[in-house]
Structures are given as C-alpha cells and as structure tokens.
Amino acid sequence: MGECQLCGKKGENLSLLQANHKELGAIMVCQDCWRKLYEDNAMVCGLSGGSGGSCPTCG
C-alpha cells in the first residue's frame, strides 16, 4: 500500500509520483501534493514526474 510522504494519504489505489523536492530530496507524493509542489515551485526542475522530460518553463 502506497503512502504520500507529504500529506500521509494512503490506499491501495493511490497513485504516487516521484518529486525531487528542493529541500527534502526525492520523495513519493500523491497527485494533489505533486501539483501543489509544482505550483509552489518547490521541485528541482527537470527531475520530477514520470515523463523524464523537462518542465514547460525550462523547455
């Protein structure tokens, strides 16, 4: 069972994404927390999410 390392949400059907947080390093978070980290610019650009690409801002 997965658990979000930020909000503590857990469940068998919870999808987790890897986020490279600027202060916490690589953590697994739920989609809601990933979105919030992205909006708050709290991730290291180009190293988070599942696509392996860079963020839209960096091109």
Give the ordered list of helices and strands: EEEEH
Our estimate of the beta-strand percent is 25-35%
- Please summarize the sheet with the most strands: 2 strands, antiparallel
Low-confidence stretches: 47-54
Radius of gyration: 11 Å
Continuous helix count: 1
* Relative helix content: 10-25%
Tell me what you see in this structure:
Strand 1 and strand 2 form a beta hairpin. The protein is of the alpha+beta class and 59 residues long. Helix content is 15%, strand content 27%. It has one helix spanning 31-39, and strands at residues 2-3, 10-11, 16-21, 25-30. The chain has a domain at 2-39. The protein starts with a strand and ends in a 20-residue tail after the last helix. The protein is elongated.
